[in-house]
Structure formats: structure tokens, C-alpha cells
Amino acid sequence: MFKNHISVALRNFQKRKSFTFINVLGLTVGMTVCLLILTYAKYEMSYDTFHSRANDIYRISVDIYNGEDFQIADAQCYPAAGKLAKDEFAEVEEYAMARKFGRMSLKNGDKAFNEDGVYFATPSWLEVFDWELQMGNRATALKDANTIVISESTAERYFGEEDPMGKMIKLLPGGGELPMLVTGVIKDVPENAHLKFDILVSYQTAVEEFGSKYDNFGGNNEYMYILANTALDNEFEKRFNATYFERTEPFLERGDSLDIQPLTDIHLNSDKTYEAETNGSQSIVNILLVVAIFVLIIAWVNFINLSTARAMERGKEVGVRKVLGSNKGALITQFLMESFMLNFLAVVLTLTCIQGVLPLFNEFAGLDLSFNVFQNTQALLQVAAILIIGSFASGIYPALVLSNYRPLAVISGRLKDSKGGLILRKGLVIFQFMITMLLLAGTVTIYQQVNHMRSQSLGVNIDQTIVIRNPVMSANDSLQSEHRKTLKSELNRVAQVKSVAYSETVFGQGTTEMNTTTGFYELVNKTGRGVSFSFFRVDEDFTKAFEFEILAGRTFDSNIENLIPDSGGYDGIMINETSRKIFGYSTNEEAVGQKINRFGAQVAIIGVFADYNHHSLKTKVDPTVLFFDRYGYASDYVSIKLNAGNNPGKAYKSILGEIEKVYRQVYPESDFDYFFLDENFEKQYQADRQFGTVFTTFAGITIFVAILGLFGLVLYEVQQRIKEIGIRKVLGASVGTIIKLLSSSFLKLISIAILLATPIAYFGMNEWLSGYAYRIELSVLLFIVPAVGLLLIALATVTTQAIKAANENPVKSLRYE
What we know:
Elements: H1 2-15, H2 17-44, E1 57-66, E2 69-74, H3 79-88, E3 92-99, E4 104-108, E5 111-115, E6 118-121, H4 125-128, E7 133-136, E8 147-151, H5 152-159, E9 168-172, E10 178-186, E11 199-202, H6 203-210, E12 222-228, H7 234-247, H8 251-254, E13 256-262, H9 266-269, H10 282-309, H11 311-323, H12 328-365, H13 377-403, H14 407-411, H15 419-455, E14 465-469, H16 477-491, E15 497-503, E16 515-517, E17 520-522, E18 533-538, H17 542-545, E19 550-553, H18 558-561, E20 572-576, H19 577-583, H20 588-591, E21 595-598, E22 601-609, E23 624-628, E24 637-642, H21 648-666, E25 674-676, H22 677-682, H23 686-720, H24 722-730, H25 735-769, H26 781-806, H27 810-814
Parallel strand pairs: 6-11, 8-10, 18-23, 20-22
Antiparallel strand pairs: 1-2, 1-12, 1-13, 3-6, 3-12, 4-5, 4-9, 7-10, 8-11, 9-10, 14-24, 14-25, 15-24, 16-18, 17-21, 19-22, 20-23, 21-22
């Protein structure tokens, strides 16, 4: 019997090649897209799960308030918070913390490199987390001051094939050298870790060298984690905060509270300031998962539609089988077997396609995903589930419809297409094109939003700017300052250099390099107290080089600033318009000359500049304060504005050569680390562009599968009505009449789908856009364009078949009538 079912199925496939091809192609494309997205989603949801007790680890971070009004969520925490949790709560077994002080250099003999992945960590950092320690002792590797644990790749860079354990290496934090003892080698941190590092220095080193304190509740600069022996909920967070306020100050006086966040939630569900890395988005993963389900459902719907549409054609086969003794169960088995065989063939083709498509997807997304059903049990289960569910879901309804035909009605020629089956097919077509319309509207909206952000003025000019990262040196501050003056002077002599400016950070470098404080407020009425301000230090040429719009007052001038008695280098400040409003000054002119409190010291406002976007336009403008870097101690970046003409691409190569030559003369032992500021700023939109491209690609594939199904239905409709078309041709019907005859019903269904999908698309896109500070407004055009495009594609599909049928010689279809 089983062999007979297979033989009959193969015979039917061969007899109806076009429908078999359409079904297999649609299923293959749907399955390929679905498994690709599932592979990506699995990777995104796997962040930090490689730790054996990942579900027991939580991050403590700080939420900042102004009175009772929430201001900002900060990913970093106070050093004393972890010890408080461990000492006061039985649920907490241990805490671990790490701090990043910024860029540092590591030196071993003549091998020296600038390092960005340096963290100062407590000994428990190696015990709370399962970092794979290749050499060294977890308990003691970070116990003492001046000890260091390095990654395998770092060990290879500095020591080659030599065993690094017990060797000395020099750490250059800037302004001196610290001899460090290598006490451990760790395997490179996996890519799916929300915090990545290359070098761990003992936290005790920070205590002794930089003044860090374990019992400090005054500066939240540490990444803090606790290991719990039970699940921590909101009730624990309330008790923890109550104890925190008892030990420090009441909530309204402190202006903050502590937030407890599961480790495995950080990557997809956290978008706080000072995140260690750029996190992903749960909403994006969810959207792509919905697309994966939609495209697979559309492929299955195509199968159901084509199978039920062909029910009349296979009616005689069913009637003869029933007359010869086949029961209903045997017929259902036969049709489910056909469904299983088509789905199985699609699975085989899908597994082949994925091996070819995945490398392209990896290259585009910058990932290293793999898919192997023979080595990954979860992948095997996914494929098996898709095969089984797909075979049953796409095959059961056609099987029930066909097996219920009565032999007498079939053989006597009185079998007609059921009203219920016709309604179902129409409903499924509407459902398919509703999904297609949703994806098209989403694609247009995403494209418009990303383009809107990239095309908006930032309020500063970042074009034709090369930025060099200043090297970290062992020289003292005054000597470093002299080096920087020399570099600036020599660079200004290069013919095509317009200006050179130093700053603590530059535009688009993220929140981790921006200082924040709630310590600024107006002296008389205390306005601004509790508000989180961003600030950084710049030299006198910074605002001029980037063409800040000065609304009142003046910019920094070393000839004036250096006459002011030194009180820590924070004497004169410039503020943006947002800060001016927060301080309560009615005009920009009124703000100039006023004194502002900064942690007990008074600083004068010398100028007010127009708001600008320091970060991407996904975020609003922060209240921003600029300090004059009197001695150049905080000048981490050298911004070089060029005059490269209208075609800078050709000129950059020669200019870069000149700039590097000057740089090597001043810093002969340092690496030349540079980037183009506009390109670097654009990287902030990389995730949005990638999402838009991925969404558009998968939306296009979904449309292809839907149109493929429509093509199959139109092809069947033409075959069923070929005699009617022949008679109409004989009676004088034109090609246009035939096109209208075949297309009207399908276009009506697609129009209904568009009308139903439009409000859903509007609310969905409006919700997505709510996450952007600078967003487009949803106009009618955003929905008209995809609707018209969908109708045109559908019309072209129907018209192609209609013209072919209309041009057929009617004699062929009527020769036996």
C-alpha cells in the first residue's frame, strides 16, 4: 500500500509539472527564509547564555531622577552596591564588578599597542562568570595589585609563542608606566557576550593607582553584577532599594534608584546610557520572526489553494478509487503522502540553499552563523517540525475535501466546486496579500525613516574631517601637552589642512566616551539640579572648526582663558540652548556671564551655542556643556578639517600620507589610528540600515512567494476556462476583454487585502517610529505607493497569462466540442 501511494504521488507530480514546480519552489523559498531568520534569532537570543549560571546572574544599574521624574537609565553602578547586596541579602552569593577607564597602551619590549578593551575587575569576575581561563588560578589571578589577565589573542600579539605566565608587561594608562605581572590567560571572549574585553587588570590596581574605592556610593562608573541562589523579582528590587536608601540618603535627596536586570535580558532588552557594547533589539528580532512565520504560511497557503483549486480535476480519480473499494482513510493517507513528499523535497532543497546563502548573509550582517542539522540538535528539531507541521497543515484540508467526494456525483459529471472551498481560497488569497501589503508598507517606512535621519542637518559640520586618536604615553602631562602642541602646529602647516582641533570625544562615538553629571545647577534658584548633563573638554579651535552656531557670548580663547586663575581647568563653560532653558534663563544673552554650580565650584557661562546632534538622530539633544581644556590633558582626539575640494576622494590619499608623516615625526613609536568622521558617524545607522535591508529582502521574497501562488491560481483558472475563452474569442471578444475577465476577481481580492492591511500597517509603523526622537510623519503616500505597486505586480502576473490565453487559437480549445 505504501509503495502504491508513492507511485501514485510520483505519477501525479509528473502529470502536473507546473503545479509541482510552483509548490516546491514556494515551499523551498519559504523554508529557507524561515530557517535563516530562526538561525539569526537563535544567535541574538543566545547572548551570555554560555555561562553555566547565566540565569542566576543579574546586573545592577542606576536609574536617575529629577525629583520624582525619571531622567535617564545608566548601565553603570556604584562600587559599593555589589558589596551591599552580598552583605545584606541571603539571596546574593557573590558580586563582581569591572570598570573601563578608557583607552590604554600595553608594552612588552618593542611591542606596544593602544588597547580599547581594558577593564579593571575584581577577583570574583573570573568566578561569577565562566570565562574560559586557559592558564592561571581563578581565585587568585586578579587578587593582588599590578596583576593582569590577558586574552589568547593579546598574549600572541605581545609574547608570540612564548609562555606569558609570570612575565612582566607594562601598562600605560597615560602619564606613567605600571609594571604588571601576567597571572592568567583567558580564551577570547565569545562574540555573543554583551561585554567584551581583551585585558583584565586587578581592581586593586585601580584602588592603589587611581583612587577607586570599594565603598563608594558617589560615582557610578562600574559594571556591577550579582550571583543569586534564587530568582530575583521586583519585590527583591524594592527591598534592595529600601536598604540602599537607609545606608545612603532618602530617594528624593539622592535622585536615583538601583535597577536589577537579568543578564540574559541585557543584549535585546537594554538601551541604557553607557552600555558596554551596542545592544540588539528584541522588537527587531520579533519583527523578523513574524516575517519568517508569514513567508512560511504563505508558502503553505499556496499549496492549499492550488490543491483545492485542482480538486475538480482530481474528482474523477477519487470517484474511481471509491468505486474500486478505497475508503476515506486510504484517500486521506494518499493525499497527505503527496503533501509530505513535496514538503520533504522542499526541505532537501532548503538545506542545500542555506549552505549557499548563509555565507552571503554572514558577510552582510557581519556575523559568523552556522547551520548544520547533523551537529545541532535544535536545528534538526526545527527542520523536523517544519516538515511535519507543513506536511499536515498544507495537506489535511485538501485531503479532507477530496476524500469527501461522492462517487456517483463525480462519475455522472454533476460534481461542482463547493461554495465553501471557493470562499476559503478567496480568504486565503486575501490573507496572503494582507501580509504582503504589511511588509511593503513596512519596507517603505523603514527606508524613509533611515533616509530621513541620514539627511538631516546635525547642527555642526563634520564633512572632510580626519580624526586621529591620540596615543597613550608614559610621559608626564606637561610633556604630553608639548607633544600635542607640536603636532597641532606641524599639521597646520600641511597645505590642505584648514584647521586642527583637540577634544575629549568627537561626534558619534557613543555615550561611553561622554561624561555625564547631575551636579550642574543655577546658583540662585537651584534650577537644573538633578538633571543629567553631558559634558566634555575641548580646545579653543573646536567650535570654530566644526562651525558651531554661537547664539550669544563668545567661544573659548586661550589668550583670555589662561588669564583666569587655575581652579581645576573648569573656569569658563559654553552651554547649548537646551541647557540654557533648563537653567531657567529666558534668553541666550541673559545666560552669558551667569555662574553655575559644578560640585560646589562656580563656573561662568561665556557662550551659548545652538543645539546639535552629538549622537544619531534616534536620540534627542542632550543638555550639553563644553569645558576649555586649558592644558590639553584630556585631548584624546585630533580633528583635522581639510580643504580637499569638491572631489575629496582622490585628494585624501595624498593628504593622509602627509598627515601620517607629521604624526610619525612627533610619535615615532605609536600606531597611526585614524578614521573619517562622517563615515564613523554613519556607523550609528548601520544597524538600522542592516535591518532595513534584511526586512526589504525578506519582504521581497514574501512578495515573490505570494505572486508565485497567484501565478499558479491564474494558470489553473485559465486552464479551467480555456473553452469559455475560446468561445468568447469566436464571438469577437478582444484581448482586453479577456484580460478583464480573468483579472477582475483577483484584483478585487487584492484590493480588499490592501484595505484591511492599511490600518494595521499604520498602527504598527507608528509604534515602531515612536522609538525615534526624530521621525517621519506617516503620510497617505507611504501607503499608496506600496498599494499601487502591489496591484501593478498582481496585474502584470494575471495579464501575462491572460494575453497568452487570449492569443491562443480558439480552434485548439474547441476542436472536440
